[in-house]
Write a structure and sequence with these properties.
315 residues, alpha+beta, 2 domains, 11 helices, 8 strands, globular
Length: 315
């Protein structure tokens, strides 16, 4: 099991990496935050003892193992230090108990799992599951939509114990990030629109996440409210509400906590008979893509499971 010296070496490596990437003010803040880890060394021992943490996540010394404490916030705005550690450990304990070495290699050491892809007219569209960037602690894993290698959309999430949001012992995906493309991705977005007219990158990503969850026997997804997002900006409040609260509402999500919505799976779609006749064919085509993506993600994940009985985590 990693000892105190090993942890200090990792922290020093993370600080040095941040020194090259940011200014002195940010570096000082990072040092102060990283010092928090030393106050909770014992609380991290279970996390560091996991196979996925020790042999995969920690295999690359460039990976910041402690971003849940070294960053200003983690997953949900306002979490205490101990709750951050608990959310982190719950996520990786579930990964460790549920998936085999082949999955861990793909997700943690390689470029991730390709959940769905399509080639059309020289355009390669793919949806992947991979480790999230360590500078964006809004979820440990990310489902990303890529067009010719350019990211158009990303859902980042943690596996959480349902009891943390009043949903019993079932494990659920908690989405802390629902982010679209930057202005630099406009050419890729134009290619996406040409290949999949009247469709949405966000629905593509959520359909893939739905397939992952259903492959694990899960019946719901939890989505963060915009104001609880760790990057929430009061000056851009409307954008956050649209990206989070209104998106979950489109999926028939229901408020279940101060910071979250619960989306039942499969996500709600208005019956086609209730769609205006002139839009029905277009709606059916959109939905066929979503269904194919969910099924592909479901099929892709199943061979990597250790067992058919999914482990439940205590809240």
């Amino acid at each position: 099991m990693p000892d105190h010296v090993w942890i200090i070496r990792r922290l020093a490596r993370d600080v040095m990496a941040r020194r090259r990437e940011s200014g002195w003010k940010s570096l000082l803040a990072s040092i102060v935050r990283s010092a928090r880890v030393l106050a909770f060394v014992d609380a991290h021992q279970q996390f560091l003892a996991l196979d996925v943490s020790r042999n995969y996540l920690a295999a690359d010394w460039n990976t910041n193992l402690f971003h849940h404490l070294s960053q200003r916030a983690y997953l949900i705005e306002g979490l205490s230090m101990r709750k951050r550690i608990a959310y982190l450990h719950s996520h990786y304990a579930f990964e460790d108990q549920t998936f085999g070495d082949a999955y861990k290699r793909k997700v943690y050491l390689e470029d991730g799992l390709t959940l769905w892809e399509k080639r059309q007219g020289g355009v390669h569209t793919a949806i992947t599951l991979s480790l999230s960037p360590r500078w964006a602690p809004e979820g440990e894993l990310s489902v990303c939509l890529l067009v010719n290698g350019t990211r158009l959309h990303c859902l980042s999430f943690n596996w959480i114990a349902g009891g943390t949001v009043g949903m019993g012992s079932q494990v659920l995906p908690f989405v802390g990030r629902n982010q679209g493309a930057s202005s630099q991705a406009q050419p890729a977005l134009a290619s996406f629109d040409a290949c999949f007219p009247n469709n949405s990158p966000s629905f593509f990503c959520f359909s893939a996440l739905q397939g992952l969850a259903q492959a694990l026997g899960m019946t719901s997804v939890v989505g963060i409210k915009g104001r609880a997002n760790i990057c929430f900006d009061h000056g851009a409040a409307r954008s956050f509400i649209n990206a989070y609260d209104k998106f979950w509402a489109r999926l028939n999500g229901q408020e279940i906590a101060e910071h979250a919505y619960l989306i039942s799976l499969p996500f709600y779609q208005k019956p086609l008979v209730d769609v205006a006749a002139k839009h029905r064919k277009r709606a059916a085509m959109r939905r066929s893509y979503w269904e194919n993506i969910s099924m592909s993600a479901h099929r892709t994940l199943q061979p990597y499971l250790l067992a058919s009985d999914i482990v439940s985590l205590a809240a």
